[in-house]
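Consider today's protein:

***
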Amino acid sequence: MTAHLERKISAPRAMLEELRDRAAAHPVSVRAAAWDYLAGLGARNDRDALAEMFAAGAAPQGPDGKMEGLIVGKLFGIPEAHLANLLMRIEPTWRGKTFDLEGGVGWNRLAPLARFVMPIITAGYLGLRRVGAEMEGFDFAHALAASWIEPDKTVRALDYGVPEYRNPSIRTFPIAWTRDEVVEVVPGVYLGRALLRMYDDEIRLIAYFALREPIGSHL
């Protein structure tokens, strides 16, 4: 007798497979659904599900251009995360990232309030510039590379440690010691994780975030 065994997969991977199956025929609604699903995981602070989504993500050919951004869940893994989470509940200043794919460079976009609070939080970082209704800064170089913590996985790696960018490296805002790693969830939607290199060279995962090509926004 031959038994039929169904392939068992987790809910996050099942959702991802369904979204990818629909992506070619319904790209806009799939982008919206994937974004909402990631936001829901963040609202529950479901790091296990986020880790599964990241593991199933593909090496991205993008992003390119302006991307909407979303912090997915709470920051964790460092003592400063508690204060950062409180501040983000009051005013989540981060708006997203912009990528120049051909040039291999990019930068973060923030709310105008960042112009006043970031020089205080970062002990004097002056790299922010006003562009339209947003502030831009915390520049990075990016390229496809092996993950810091999963060498067999290819990610888009964002390097904030380029000396000419003069990103902060102080304990309360050590972005120069941070590497963002990004994978594609579905076309136009990306899941990222922030990794921090500690002073003893330990690599810590400290946050998840999402990026997407804009859907009907001002970008």
Remarks:
- Strands lie at 65-72, 94-100, 105-110, 129-131, 134-146, 154-159, 178-186, 189-197, 203-212.
- The chain has one domain: 11-212.
- Helices lie at 11-23, 27-43, 47-56, 81-90, 114-121.
- Confidence is low (pLDDT under 50) at residues 1-5.
